[in-house]
């Protein structure tokens, strides 16, 4: 019978760094940040121009407070525009081409060069995150993640192998093949997007294989999609009879955080700076409040990524001490993309929160959020496709109450027939802009 629970004991990839005091890590980060800003300013015409434009010199940044108030943000669009204007790497490359060891591409396209030292730092950070999640030497790992172009697959491959794991480069799709190999080899760890992990469990049952009894999976590590709540992870854990942990990262910035056995969020890696900001004002969110994740990788030399706006929305940072002993803050639940988020009556409304509530009712389908004015009063309307318009008045009141509890907003609910909301219709319509 397989072991379904991971041991919860003090156990670290780099105990000295992971359990360092907040005062020490602040000092280390500040020194690294100052050095990194000087490096980028001296070696990247892109960053020199960005700093000069706002009248800023790196030596003026004395603290992390200065950094968060003065250093300009970086957006995905800026990187693409700069590279398109001066291909292949624009004004961003800080090393000689002979020092580049790997080049990734993300949508745009955006070319991301990595030097040998960049790769080593990224692989170590990835291995650290996987270790935090519970992967160990001797595990047999199925990486059900894309390997082509994207840095995720190969970085995970290198990270798991640095831990001493045996790696199967499974990639995405071909779920029946995955299950067959998982059973044949006795795979103990699976890395996948949440929806594909659930697809694997469903496929196993279609093949007459009980994921809990016939497979040896003890740990599923997920990333890349918003997890609506604790129940979603519990459902996945129940399907496999395994622990489920999360990692967080992006194509431009690599892996940034990972979840330990105690939960409560994802531990931020110590070699990066993670901020949570109000996406409208650009100012730091109040302690514990939600906002957009902004990150700086302090180790990347070939193409520095400084104050990068990920456009990912999190419920905030958990600053409470973690029982695992790690001292880094934990990123709370990531619930969506800032481009889909609307502010109504001073409160941010996240479409994924609405989706979570609506999905609990089988008779409901697509929805659309409309914000406008009714006279001088701001009005929040949510159109919801319904299969039983005349019978859903009780559900309507339930939705209003659940939304108010979850968002502190009072919304009007308008049921419409199935098919009324086009497949390509925007999730949010803000008529206040017109």
Low-confidence stretches: none
Tally of separate domains: 2
Structural class: alpha/beta
User: What fraction, in percent, of the residue positions are helical?
Assistant: 25-40%
- CATH A-level architecture of the largest domain: 3-Layer(aba) Sandwich
CATH topology of the largest domain: Rossmann fold
What is the terminal separation in angstroms? 62 Å
Major beta sheet, specifics? 9 strands, mixed
Tell me the Rg in angstroms: 23 Å
Strand order of the largest sheet: 4-3-5-6-7-8-9-14-13
The CATH class name of the largest domain reads Alpha Beta
Tell me the β content: 25-35%
- Strands, total number: 21
Mean pLDDT: 91
Describe this structure in words.
The longest helix is centred in the N-terminal third of the chain and has 22 residues, at 22-43. The model has no long low-confidence stretch (mean pLDDT 91). Helix 12 links the parallel strand 19 and strand 20. By secondary structure, the chain is of the alpha/beta class. It is 32% helix and 25% strand. Helix 2 (22-43) packs across helix 3 (45-53) and helix 8 crosses helix 9. It folds into two domains: 1-337, ANL, N-terminal domain (Rossmann fold), CATH 3.40.50.12780; 342-433, ANL, C-terminal domain (GMP Synthetase, Chain A, domain 3). The protein is built from twelve helices and 21 strands.
């Amino acid at each position: 019978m397989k072991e379904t629970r991971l041991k919860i004991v003090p156990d670290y990839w780099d105990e000295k760094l992971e359990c360092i005091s907040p005062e020490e890590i602040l000092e280390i980060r500040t020194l690294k940040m100052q050095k990194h800003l000087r490096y980028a300013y001296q070696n990247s015409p892109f960053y020199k121009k960005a700093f000069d434009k706002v009248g800023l010199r790196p030596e003026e940044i004395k603290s992390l407070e200065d950094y968060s108030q003065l250093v300009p943000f970086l957006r995905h669009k800026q990187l693409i525009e700069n590279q398109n204007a001066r291909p292949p790497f624009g004004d961003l490359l800080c090393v000689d081409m002979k020092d580049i060891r790997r080049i990734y591409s993300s949508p745009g396209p955006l070319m991301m060069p990595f030097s040998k030292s960049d790769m080593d730092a990224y692989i170590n950070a990835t291995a650290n995150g996987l270790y935090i999640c519970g992967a160990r030497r001797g595990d047999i790992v199925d990486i059900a993640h894309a390997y082509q172009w994207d840095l995720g697959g190969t970085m995970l491959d290198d990270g798991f192998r640095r831990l001493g794991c045996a790696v199967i480069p499974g990639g995405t799709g071909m779920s029946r093949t995955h299950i067959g190999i998982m059973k044949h080899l006795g795979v103990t760890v699976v890395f996948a997007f949440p929806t594909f992990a659930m697809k694997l469990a469903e496929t196993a049952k279609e093949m007459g294989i009980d994921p809990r009894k016939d497979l040896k999976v003890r740990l599923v590590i997920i990333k890349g999609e918003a997890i609506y709540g604790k129940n979603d992870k519990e459902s996945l854990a129940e399907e496999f009879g395994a622990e489920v942990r999360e990692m967080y990262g992006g194509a431009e910035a690599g892996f940034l955080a990972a979840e330990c056995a105690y939960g409560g969020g994802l531990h931020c890696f110590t070699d990066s700076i993670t901020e949570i900001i109000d996406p409208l004002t650009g100012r730091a969110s109040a302690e514990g409040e939600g906002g957009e994740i902004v990150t700086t990788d302090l180790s990347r030399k070939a193409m520095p990524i400084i104050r990068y706006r990920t456009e990912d929305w999190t419920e905030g940072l958990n600053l409470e001490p973690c029982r695992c002993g790690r001292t880094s803050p934990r990123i709370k639940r990531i619930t969506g993309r800032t481009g889909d988020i609307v502010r109504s009556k001073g409160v941010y409304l996240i479409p994924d929160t609405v989706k979570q509530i609506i999905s609990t009712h089988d008779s409901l389908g697509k929805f659309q959020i409309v914000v406008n004015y009714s006279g001088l009063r701001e009005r929040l309307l949510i159109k919801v496709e319904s299969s039983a318009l005349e019978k859903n008045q009780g559900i309507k009141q339930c939705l209003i109450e659940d939304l108010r509890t979850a968002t502190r907003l009072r919304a009007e609910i308008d049921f419409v027939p199935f098919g009324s909301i086009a497949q390509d219709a925007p999730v949010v319509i803000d008529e206040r802009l017109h």
